[in-house]
Structures are given as C-alpha cells and as structure tokens.
Amino acid sequence: MPSLQNAVTVITGASSGIGKASALAFARAGARLVLAARRAEPLEETARECRQLGAEAIAVVTDVTDEVAVQALAQAAIEAHGRIDVWFNNVGTGVVGPYWEALLDLQKRVVETNLMGTLHGAHAVLPHFLRERRGVLVNMVSMGGWSPTPFAATYAASKYGIRGFSASLRQELTGYPDIHVCGVFPALVDTPGLAHGANFSGRAIDPPGPFLTPEHVAEVVVGLVRRPRAEVAVGLPATAARIAYGIAPVLTERGVGAAMRAALRRARPDTRSEGAVARTVPTGTGTRSGKPVWHVRGPSLGGVALGGLGLLVGAELLAGVLTRRG
Ligand SMILES: NC(=O)c1ccc[n+]([C@@H]2O[C@H](COP(=O)([O-])OP(=O)(O)OC[C@H]3O[C@@H](n4cnc5c(N)ncnc54)[C@H](OP(=O)(O)O)[C@@H]3O)[C@@H](O)[C@H]2O)c1
Q: Origin, by domain of life (predicted)?
C-alpha cells in the first residue's frame, strides 16, 4: 500500500503513547482514522489533533478485552467509510514484579488485554479484509516477544503469544497475497506505558533507557503499512535481543535476568500499584512521559550492540565447551 491517502485505518490504544503518535503520523499521511481506547476524553483529544492535521478521525470508546465492543469498533469503521484498509492492534499493558507476588486477576487481565485484545481485533477485521481480498493487519509485539522479560513474565507470555499468532495467521493467509500480517518489535520507548502498568516489585520502575521516541515507532508503523513485512525491529536493542536469544539463548536469559535483578535491587523502594491494567487512570494522556530519548542510531551504538553480541556468543560457546568437559 504505497499511499495512505484516504486509507481507512483503525488504531487501538490511541489515547496515549505509541497509539496516539501513530494516529498523528497516519493523519499526516492522509489516512481516515477510527481510533479506540477506554478513556473517552483523551481519545477524543487525539481525534481532534488528527482533524487539525486535515484528516478525518472518529473516536470509538472500546475495551479490547470485550469481543463485542471490538466487533462494534469494526462496524463503526464500516458504517463511516464502507471498508477497512489497515488495522493496528496496538493496545498493551503489563505487570512488573515477581510473578507470584502480583494478583492473578491482574496477570489474567494482561493476557486478556494484550493477547485476547489482538485476537479480538483480528477476528473483527479479517472478514472485511477477506471480502476485499486486501488489507494490512499490524500487531504490536515488543522486543519482549523475541527474548524473555524477567519480572514481567505475563507480559512476555502475551507478547510471545502475539508473535506466534501473527506468524501462524500469515501462513493461513498465503492464498491472499494482498492481505498482510505484520509484527512490530520496539525496544524501550518513552511513553506513559510504564506508569500505566501495574507494579508489584516493591521498587520504583525507572529504567535508565535508552528510550526511543513514540514518534519514531509511529513512523516505522507507517512505513510498514506502505511496505508490509512480517516482523520489524525498532531500535538496536531489539535487533540485538533477537539475534542474541537466537544464537545464545541460555546466556541471554541469564544475562537479562541478572540485569533485571540488579536494576530492581538498586531501585528505590516504592509502594505497590495496580496501574491502569484493570481500570483506567486519568494520568498519562500524551505521547511521551518526558524521559531523555535516544535519537542516535549511528555506528557507535551499533558497535556497542554488536560487541555485546560478540561477547554473548563467545561466552555461550565457552559455556558449551566447559559443560561438555564437565
Ligand atoms: N513503551 C515501551 O517501552 C514499549 C516497548 C515495546 C512495545 N510496547 C507496546 O506498545 C503498545 C503501546 O504501549 P505504550 O507504551 O504506548 O503505552 P500507553 O501509553 O499506556 O498506551 C496503551 C494504550 O492502550 C490503551 N488501553 C489499555 N488497556 C486497554 C483496553 N483494555 N482496551 C482498550 N484500550 C486499552 C490505553 O488507553 P486507555 O487507558 O484509555 O484504554 C492506551 O491508549 C503496547 O502494546 C506495548 O506493549 C511498548
């Protein structure tokens, strides 16, 4: 889909963060937007900002855990525009902390939101894509869909699930060359998302970064719809995580675990919070949270990532040799 002019585009999770940045990016590209999230006012604000950019945009309050509401979202797009060209399943949330510490209800809600929300979206839009024999479905994954995320195990489970779902669906649709299923795998992005997640770690969650901007992720998503690909990494840490876990899974798992344990130990104590996982919170309606972001995508960072990768592979090979000797 080289041009997005008038492309009817549904984006879930458009009241903040990457979803809001994506709505604005698609608006600039001339798309007609149908935007969804639970909070009416910030969602309407995103729609207003899209209209100020000259795009058509409507807001449809939707909880993606509710399959009937997601069907109604698709229906609203069809009633407004007669077709759907692009559907971006962007909604996502998480629970941070040891898995056994957080309420099981919240963990279930993460799966219902991230994984079931994506399944609901696909189920609602695919009949329209199949009828037209064309369309682009973009599923938000994360680099946490390529390598483990200790202390956010349910988040990882949901993102691995979305990745497996997308890869499988792609094969079911091989008879439809103009229907595409794409996955986006960003590294850390500065959004209100971290504050919207639940925190049962007992520590303040304030990772040092580096953070991408949501606007950068949004541009990647626009590019992905123009030139659909199965999976796209956003940011070098995502590429490094993919390669490292592919080549040296044991060491990557241990390395990520050690880094997360150390980061939590160093963090200041904080109270537990359920965030916006089950119920909305009024805070966090912008695209960013205000952390210093990472604009550098030059060779020095690439060198660091590749150097780290080299170390991982070397250590994995060494560990293999030592294990065999033992
Ligand atoms: N930030 C990162 O570092 C990062 C990295 C990789 C991937 N991602 C992924 O990017 C996506 C967007 O996250 P973000 O960082 O932009 O966080 P965010 O600002 O919290 O955005 C999440 C959006 O989803 C909506 N939402 C949450 N639960 C919902 C539900 N049940 N039904 C409908 N809408 C719901 C939220 O709005 P309401 O509260 O108004 O519903 C909000 O608009 C997520 O899938 C996340 O996993 C984020």
A: Bacteria
